[in-house]
Task: structure prediction
Amino acid sequence: MQLQEGWLEGARRQPSPHFDERPEGEAPSLLVVHNISLPPGEFGGPWIDALFLGTLNPDAHPYFSDIAHLRVSAHCLIRRDGEIVQYVPFDKRAWHAGVSCYQGREKCNDFSIGIELEGTDTLPYTDAQYAQLAAVTQALVAVYPGIASHMTGHCDIAPERKTDPGPAFDWARFRTACAPLMDKETP
Result:
């Protein structure tokens, strides 16, 4: 898996209008893992794409009326079956973190990459998702080596507001899969 002009080769592209430029000279140095399911607890369907593309129909489900107006995006989504959907090039600023702080730095969108896993805080993620998340992370570290030692959950950068990826996410499994990447970080 490789990046080409900010896009993952082989990922399904769904360009979101919800992004902008990173601050001048700012390269991604943090990976933020999220989860999402729309409607909550349901998997599959077009709803996540629609949210990130700004086309979510508020009348399609009662829950959507509260979120259809949001202007949000992630860099990519890894579905339950391992399909990767990319919405924003990694060199651009996706709008995934909101009000956030990591190691004293606020506005995490400025310096982070947001990856959504189709899931919930409490249901186990799939083997395919862990495999693809590790593969995407490897591709990212090849271009943005600082990420190798800075991977966290949305819950850690916005603890008052967010709980994802939740206790169902196996951080030890993910970090073990990424352990070979740690040696690639540049000083």
Remarks:
- DSSP finds four helices and twelve strands in the chain.
